[in-house]
Each structure stands twice: as C-alpha cells, then as structure tokens.
Design goal:
Distance between the termini: 35 Å
Structural class: mainly beta
Number of helices: 0
Strand order of the largest sheet: 1-2-3
Radius of gyration: 14 Å
Oligomer: single chain
Largest sheet: 3 strands, antiparallel
C-alpha cells in the first residue's frame, strides 16, 4: 500500500510545458504519453508531473496534420 496522502496512477499524457537543463527545448509544446514505472506512490493523476525525457513517447498528429483526439461515444 502507498503511504498517505498519495496521488494514484502510473500513466500520464499531456503537453510538455517546460524542460530542464540539458534537455532539447524542442520537447516544449509536444503532446506526449509516458509510464511512470514502478514508483511507490504513483502520481499519474497529478495536474503536473516531472518525468525524464527518456520516458516520453510523442503522441503523433492525425493523418491530416491536426492533433488527433480520441472519438467520443
């Protein structure tokens, strides 16, 4: 069990708002997804998350060049 208080979740998706020292600034503004790995307290449901650039996966644009959004039911 995680220690309390905790923020659950291990997967994240969003837009990179900033990068740290030594990270390519081209990441800023990209839509990405990542798995936080086996962290003891999760954290994926947080509003902001810090994760290494090596863990990020770019969410590609749709075939027409616009950002892809999942269909709604």
């Amino acid at each position: 069990m995680p220690s309390l208080p905790t923020v659950p979740g291990r997967e994240i998706a969003g837009t990179v708002s900033g990068v740290g020292p030594g990270v390519d600034p081209a990441w800023t503004g990209r839509r990405v997804a990542a798995h936080l790995g086996r962290v003891p307290d999760g954290g994926g449901y947080a509003r902001r998350v810090v994760v290494g650039a090596d863990k990020l996966h770019v969410i590609p644009d749709g075939p027409d060049g616009t950002p892809w959004t999942p269909p709604t039911r």
